[in-house]
Amino acid sequence: METQGSWLFKFRSTLPILLLFMGMGYYVWSEKVGDRPFDEGSRYERIFMYACIGVSLAGLIFRSYVVGHTPANTSGRNTAEGQVADTVNKTGMYSMVRHPLYVGNFIMWLGPALLSGSFWFVAVFTFIYWVYYERIMFAEEQFLRKKFGSAYLEWANRVPAFVPDPSLYVKPSLPFSWKKVLKKEKNGLVAVFLVFYLFYALGEFAEGDKPTDNLLLCLTIISGVIYLILKMIKSNTRWLDEEGR
């Protein structure tokens, strides 16, 4: 599992994309044949879609809280060559669960999975996500055991791997950093709205209709503009840089 996990770690962004295309294909097919949980064009269908968007945004908020309270080189987008860790996070979300970023990822991707409207697709998505990330988490923990020894084991033995335990919560050791969140999580917001707009638009085209949800289109455009602005700021200034974050 460690060998598999170390290899999968380098491609940990690939699986959600493959599952996304599977979910998108199923969604478009279900729209075309009329096999949806709510009537086409009804207010309940629109409410359901925005509820699914809300699930994904909740995952993004969860991730942002984690990232905003952590120092550099302890979590997030590590190098393609392997693991990076200067310290063991033990406060904030890390006091309740050992892999909070993967919890946030799961919630974010759960939104599009729910939009499929299929219980079985959600179940398959959850199972594949679990099998895939179980190996990545195992490899990460083996790395941390070897590097930090008893300091890591004492924390890991009392904190659950994936299901948070709120009773263990410890206040974060660092203040929240909006700059780090804007720098590291800028992709997430535009990804959420772009994914859902693609689902929606392709579903409408499959039925022979045109997309008419101007609110979703506006939110997608706004999130894209925000992403481009932050990208330019990051590339041309040091405004988002913070020492140790």
Give the helix/strand layout.
Layout: H1 2-9, H2 14-33, H3 43-68, H4 100-115, H5 119-148, H6 150-156, H7 178-184, H8 186-206, H9 214-236
Write up what this structure looks like:
There is one protein chain. This protein is mostly helical. It has one domain (2-177): Four Helix Bundle (Hemerythrin (Met), subunit A). The chain is 64% helix and 0% strand. It contains nine helices and no strands. The protein has helices at residues 2-9, 14-33, 43-68, 100-115, 119-148, 150-156, 178-184, 186-206, 214-236. Helix 3 (43-68) packs antiparallel against helix 4 and helix 8 runs antiparallel to helix 9 (214-236). Residues 76-81 have low confidence and may be disordered.
Describe this protein with a few key phrases.
245 residues, mainly alpha, Four Helix Bundle (Hemerythrin (Met), subunit A), 64% helix
Quick description:
This protein is mostly helical and 245 residues long. Helices cover 64% and strands 0% of the residues. It has a single domain (2-177), classed as Four Helix Bundle (Hemerythrin (Met), subunit A) (Up-down Bundle).
Label the structural class.
mainly alpha
**Ends apart, CA distance between termini:** 31 Å
CATH class: Mainly Alpha
Instruction: Give the biggest sheet.
Output: none
Low-confidence stretches: 76-81
Radius of gyration: 19 Å
CATH architecture: Up-down Bundle
Beta-strand content: under 5%
